[in-house]
């Protein structure tokens, strides 16, 4: 029986080093050497495993810069020339060493190896990416991407630039490999908290961190690094296993330092006289690594022994066996305590295998072959497969981390490279400015805009700062950074001054043709400029997933149906901790602000601070190009921001009063209540129209605020609506544990906030009377609020606590299932402006009993669409509930009538159109006033 999993992950990346103007750049050899020693050998290993019918799994990340070079015809042609040069060099070595048997055999070995690589490469016409796609389709390899130019994301300044790096990479990957990757290799494993919501927005399900990236998470992960954890945005983070990393990475304590392996630092390009190597080095006579290396590591000595390829391969086979033995022991120990199968994640730079550790591809081959023969304990797996096996991962806050020095940003932000980021940050902001400015550019402008995006991304490559810190090829890294920043600046100046030099722009395109399908609009702020459709700005402190009462559901439903009616809808609301700051939900643009915490009991102060935050966000949105026709404020909590925006931007204001402080409390009794009451009245005065949900509410608003005729004329009644409920009408039911615990058990359900105005205490007072006639009846209470403990104590004192279930806050799916399964739904409110939850129960084909108060009386007609009882009277409530439980014909009658009524009077499509009519009336009146002034 398998006890755990091994996840092998290779990250293949090189910076973009294509120089169309000069093929002699030393840096292009990075690509050719990696192709020769790493990429082609690894692909060959994987293809042989497939041919030998070995069932294996490998995860391979291909950066977009490397992918662009792999598929570039110029680079493919140059690589063929590179291999031909090596073959000729090996031929000359065969002649030179023919008198030395051992060296001669090694020279022949390299000649045969280079020739095989050339034949292999020409056979696939250089299409290495196509071969990887086949391996993916065979189900053995999971292909991932990285950021477009391997930018170190924690030091990227703006959200837009991070998103551009990710989306550009995802688009290129999908175009090349035929499917969107589920995971990503974050460049340098660089992560910080703001990145996870952008990953989620881009559809990324998982990423990798260094060991401490998970070990230092809060709360401390209970399974350590042997299981992924979820970020607050539910993106999975897989951590590198420290033990296996050291075995494979370390040149001192790990396998690559074994004395029988090939010595990387002894190459004929430096060992031999120029007369023997001139055809294999740089045209300017610069000595370089040729790839022909005759010696093994031997030890800490300059006296190196000759390399023995077969001996080295045998050693790699033994190291594969040792590696799996260590993993096996680790998994066996963890499995007994975890209660699930652990996963050991082993991520490495692909270039380790073959380039630095010449025998690495053979080691990979042996690990995967021996795993296939494994009869117990270990199974190879990809991250996606592990996420499909379990669905209850721990949610943690992850710290800033990387696999660079000190585990943070030290490598990329040192004295040598600190100058880079201020310049890049200016370019980021300017790129966003350009993207937001041009909606419909000319062809000439579009070419320049797209090239500006390329230049910025290329300048952001983490490789340049890394090279500066590492003090290798520093001049080249500085030159590349300045080249791209300067090119971007030139393009920016051309665009903003309408002085585009097409010849200069075309030269830039030809020099760096990476990402041919790049779209500059990827840098746009998520605020959309006006599309021509009418547009409304909703202000609401509640919006899903934050659901405290009916306000959230109302704003959600109305906004979505306005979108289907052709309106652009923008919602500014509160950000819960586990939700994206900005997103588009069912076509609705949602912007969330994270409110400051309440200041003790000073709730009113919290509301003021929240309004200030909303105001700042709205003003920023308008500055970024948001244009709206109408502001729609929902309840008094957004009064301040609505009032300021109305005056600052000369926009008409609509207000919906969902309830009043007077009605909630049966009068105004405290100073806080009076202040809220005054704010409500001021919101009514400021608004051009005031929407209420029922005739009852219209009367309450007019009476409570003593409205004069001119204010009364503002009042418009538009009821709440209800949609087809997912999981109900389509015949699919979400399973709820214990819902069928007892045969013929009657479930009496309540849904709502546990506050006095909802009357749950009246239901509990009626419960003994109901239970006397129906011993199998159970009351199910869904919702939470300040009265929960008091209600639980009431049930306990009445001796009915075993028959009353407090479920707390439940998901929509759970709520819908309980509604459908209930025998009756009860809403015993003492105050209820409308009662949307009663409509939802009716939509679920459940008979309802409601108090004869407020808007409930308008929704429920006694003995037609439900039953009503005298508000606050438990005996009346019990009587009506028992009638429905006794009389199945009556119950079915009210169900049928309620269904017809909902379809006729409470369809959201109709209600949205009624709301639009209100908007249009206000807009027409505004236009008329402006015309009169002119």
TrEMBL record:
Residues 8-398 form the Glycoside hydrolase family 57 N-terminal domain. Its EC number is 2.4.1.250. Signal peptide: none annotated. Pfam families: BE_C (PF09210), Glyco_hydro_57 (PF03065), Glyco_transf_4 (PF13439), Glycos_transf_1 (PF00534). Keywords: Carbohydrate metabolism, Glycosyltransferase, Transferase. One of its GO terms (molecular function) is D-inositol-3-phosphate glycosyltransferase activity. CDD domains: GH57N_AmyC_like, GT4_PimA-like. Residues 743-899 form the Glycosyl transferase family domain. InterPro entries: 57_glycoside_trans_central (IPR037090), BE_C (IPR015293), Branching_enz_MT3115-like (IPR040042), Glyco_hydro/deAcase_b/a-brl (IPR011330), Glyco_hydro_38_N_sf (IPR027291), Glyco_hydro_57/38_cen_sf (IPR028995), Glyco_hydro_57_N (IPR004300), Glyco_trans_1 (IPR001296). One of its GO terms (cellular component) is extracellular region. The keyword Signal does not apply. Substrate binds at residues 240, 257, 403, 463. Residues 548-723 form the Glycosyltransferase subfamily 4-like N-terminal domain. Residues 424-523 form the 1,4-alpha-glucan branching enzyme C-terminal domain. The keyword Glycosyltransferase applies. GO terms for biological process: alpha-glucan biosynthetic process. The active site is at 188 (nucleophile), 349 (proton donor). Belongs to the glycosyl hydrolase 57 family. This is D-inositol-3-phosphate glycosyltransferase. It comes from Sulfoacidibacillus ferrooxidans. The gene is mshA_3.
